[in-house]
């Protein structure tokens, strides 16, 4: 039940403009899963993904299509800035839990 509340809080704050006016989306890693699994962003707009690893243990955000990867220890929050994307679906995964830590960014 607690993770559902955390997920809903994350969804409520997704897509907010930060102080620089850039769209910022929150992504949480917990228990070998990404929350939310799907992040929708506007195509053609630079944005920031703020990734928090709530553990347990380390996890990685990796995407071959986006040419991005970052390993984060438990408790670490790290921003990743993305250049404007063409419309499409861009999968990502966590290398420490490849069977369960899967998600995608959809640019519309």
UniProtKB/TrEMBL annotation:
Organism placement in taxonomy: Bacteria, Pseudomonadati, Pseudomonadota, Betaproteobacteria, Nitrosomonadales
InterPro entries: Cupredoxin (IPR008972), EfeO_Cupredoxin (IPR028096)
Start and end residues of each EfeO-type cupredoxin-like domain: 4-107
Claim: Signal is one of the keywords in the record: yes
Keyword Signal belongs to the record: yes
Domain of life: Bacteria
Gene3D superfamilies cross-referenced by the UniProt entry: Cupredoxins - blue copper proteins (2.60.40.420)
Pfam families to which the protein is assigned, alphabetical: Cupredoxin_1 (PF13473)
Protein name in UniProt: Flagellar biosynthetic protein FliR
Keywords: Cell projection, Cilium, Flagellum, Signal
Signal peptide per UniProt: 1-19
């Amino acid at each position: 039940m607690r993770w559902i509340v955390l997920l809903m809080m994350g969804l409520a704050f997704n897509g907010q403009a930060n102080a620089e006016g850039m769209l910022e989306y929150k992504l949480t890693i917990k228990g070998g899963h990404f929350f939310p699994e799907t992040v929708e962003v506007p195509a053609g707009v630079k944005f920031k993904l703020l990734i928090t690893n709530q553990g347990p243990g380390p996890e990685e955000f990796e995407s071959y299509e986006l040419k991005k990867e970052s390993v984060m220890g438990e408790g670490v929050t790290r921003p990743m800035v993305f250049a404007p994307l063409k419309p499409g679906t861009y999968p990502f995964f966590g290398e420490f839990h490849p069977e369960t830590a899967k998600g995608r960014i959809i640019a519309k």
